[in-house]
């Protein structure tokens, strides 16, 4: 199926989106000036795997992560393997590409709660709440996974803006290595860096609902644009919300990038 046909079919599906999900599509320049803002962008929700972006900065800054290929940690056979790619030896690049949860947990365990909290506070990341699930004392390994930590699209954009401006208290190496493992295929000469995230929650009726993210930045010729695409389902949907958020980004961003070039 061609890319244009895929987008056309997805655009048809988007026509029903407002009744099914709350959405936000936000683009800012590196000075924080809004380029595009559509939908509800102020509500906090779980960052899910987009939290791997700050985790990468923490990991490289602390020395737990060393390169795109080190450390290569073996799968222990006990941790959840939601995807086949989780049940194998994992490097930082593989971790980011396949959102390997247990690798994130090894990283946070290496930090310990005190240092983990200091990083989150220094990053001013969302509500900064690392307490985890009520009564389980699991914040070190679960707080960003549909649990206590929450961030709004507006706050995601603010965090990413500080990242691209190198205003976070981490080493230059942490910035460089994080950028390297977030790199995606270029788009019209723009270098794209980004991460998806998907979380689930229960509605008042017990239905499983999803939150989906695609966040990152695009750079070309000295100009950088930060982007946040977010969906917060109000009714059940069998397609991953992160995939839908990324598809919305794929539909909307090219025109914005083309306009930004001129």
From TrEMBL:
It is an enzyme of class 3 (hydrolase). It catalyses: a beta-lactam + H2O = a substituted beta-amino acid. InterPro entries: Beta-lactam/transpept-like (IPR012338), Beta-lactam_class-D_AS (IPR002137), PCN-bd_Tpept (IPR001460). Its EC number is 3.5.2.6. The keyword NAD does not apply. Keywords: Antibiotic resistance, Hydrolase, Signal. Residues 1-21 form the signal peptide. This is Beta-lactamase. It comes from Craterilacuibacter sinensis. The gene is blaOXA.
């Amino acid at each position: 199926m061609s890319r244009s046909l895929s987008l056309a079919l997805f655009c048809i599906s988007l026509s029903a989106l407002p009744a099914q999900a709350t959405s936000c599509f936000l683009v800012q320049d590196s000075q924080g000036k809004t380029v595009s803002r559509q939908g509800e962008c102020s509500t906090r929700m779980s960052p899910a795997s987009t939290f791997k972006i700050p985790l990468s900065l923490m990991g490289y800054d602390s020395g737990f992560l060393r390169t795109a290929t080190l450390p290569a940690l073996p799968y222990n056979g006990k941790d959840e393997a939601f995807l086949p790619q989780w049940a194998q030896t994992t490097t930082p690049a593989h971790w980011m590409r396949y959102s390997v949860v247990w690798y994130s947990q090894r990283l946070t365990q290496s930090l310990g709660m005190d240092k983990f909290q200091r990083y989150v506070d220094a990053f001013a990341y969302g509500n900064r709440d690392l307490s985890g699930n009520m009564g389980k004392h699991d914040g070190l390994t679960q707080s960003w996974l549909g649990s206590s930590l929450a961030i709004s699209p507006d706050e995601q954009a603010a965090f990413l803006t500080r990242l691209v401006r190198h205003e976070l208290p981490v080493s230059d190496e942490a910035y460089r290595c994080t950028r390297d493992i977030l790199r995606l295929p270029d788009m019209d000469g723009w270098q794209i860096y980004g991460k998806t995230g998907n979380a689930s929650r229960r509605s008042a009726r017990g239905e499983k609902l999803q939150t989906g993210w695609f966040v990152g930045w695009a750079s070309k010729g000295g100009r950088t644009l930060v982007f946040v695409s977010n969906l917060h389902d109000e009714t059940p949907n069998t397609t991953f919300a992160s995939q839908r958020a990324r598809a919305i980004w794929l539909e909307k961003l090219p025109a914005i990038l083309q306009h930004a070039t001129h």
